[in-house]
What we know:
427 residues, alpha/beta, Aconitase, Domain 2, Aconitase, domain 3, 5-stranded parallel β-sheet, 33% helix, metal ion binding, iron, branched-chain amino acid biosynthesis
Amino acid sequence: MGKTLAEKIFDAHRVNMPFPxxxxxxxxxxxxxxxxxxxxITDLQARGKDRVFDPSxxxxxxxxxxxxKDSKTAEQGRILREWAKRNGIKxxxxxxxxxxxxxxxxxxxxxxxxYTIIMGDSHTCxxxxxxxxxxxxxxxxxxxxxxxxxxxxxxPKTIKIVLNGKLRPGVFAKDVILFVIKExxxxxxxxxxxxxxxxxxxxxxxxxxxxxxxMAIEAGGTCGVCYPDMTTVNYLWxxxxxxxxxxxxxxxEYSKWISDKDAVYEKVYEYDVSDLEPMxxxxxxxxxxxxxxxxxxxxINQIYIGSCTNGRIEDLRIAARVLEGKKxxxxxxxxxxxxxxxxxxxxxxEGIIEVFQNAGFCVTNPTCGACLGMSNGVLASGESCxxxxxxxxxxxxxxxxxxxxxxxxxxxxxxxxxxIVNSSMFV
Length: 427
Ligand SMILES: CC(C)[C@H](C(=O)O)[C@@H](O)C(=O)O
Ligand code: SF4
């Protein structure tokens, strides 16, 4: 019987199997940020276990609220910073070099095909775009991971999502994943791996694949995964070129992280997305999704372009194409947060930052910021935001505020009009 990609990763990392449905896996990486890791650090310290299993496999960043906005967030940063220093964690990204965790870690080459990765963050599923098993975990698992380099998981039942056809211009990975979540609902993939395959995924850049996998958790998925291919190799090449002689060698090696043809799935969904339209959420659940056409004219107060879903260079390029030579409506506030310093620099070089500024956007430093409503663009009660982020939960970006999730193209077009519109009228 064939195996899925996730089963193969489990087989290669399993340490033991003390219970029938518990698989203890060796970890290739533990990612950390300043909101959840300090809780684990403080507890480990209190128990006299202020150690890490391997400092080279731990990566840490201050990203959620940075620069610190108050004493509490300053303290969270301090705990993470001092811990990283104390424990010899070299890959620690502090202010000036920091970016959104799920953007900066892949950019630095820390997510690789076949890897097992955990982090105390629900969108850790993003890293599955590289053909890795990457899952968000709670404090206890994070502590064990930091200390022992292992984590216990249930057997990875997999849902396969085959995306056929060709996306129309103006339709992006974000529209696809919003559509998939609408079809599966917010618990349609609970505790399962969502495997994204098919010609549409094959055509996607790593950035787009990360957008897809990023929102797996919004359908309840433990992890989203894509098969590694030449696109993956090209993205990682600068980090792996000493390990492999040629890109073909790298591809050969990574090809073992692809599901077998006769692998067994919990369910297979097959969609032709050739006719898919730009999508947007309404309400407070990420499966409340409609075509933008049906929401056109909905008034918005703020536009946010950024986050681990859509704050990468590809996203900024798309938004800038829509905004070029235009001004955003006087009735809205536009905020863009490039997700990492490298993305920011590239956007500067390419004139994208200037496009945003000329259009009337406020450009912030790389941070999660407005995405979780803690800083850098909190909504007032009754306000709504057209946002490229991944969660539209009630009050997510500010108490009493509403969030409409959409692609960067739709967000940029909506900024110009001051209400939700289809980006195709601009591109
Ligand atoms: C702060 C963190 C625990 C949280 C998460 O896990 O998702 C955040 O990143 C979010 O998106 O709400
Ligand atoms: S950008 Fe938003 S969703 Fe992503 S990790 Fe930060 S707070 Fe969470």
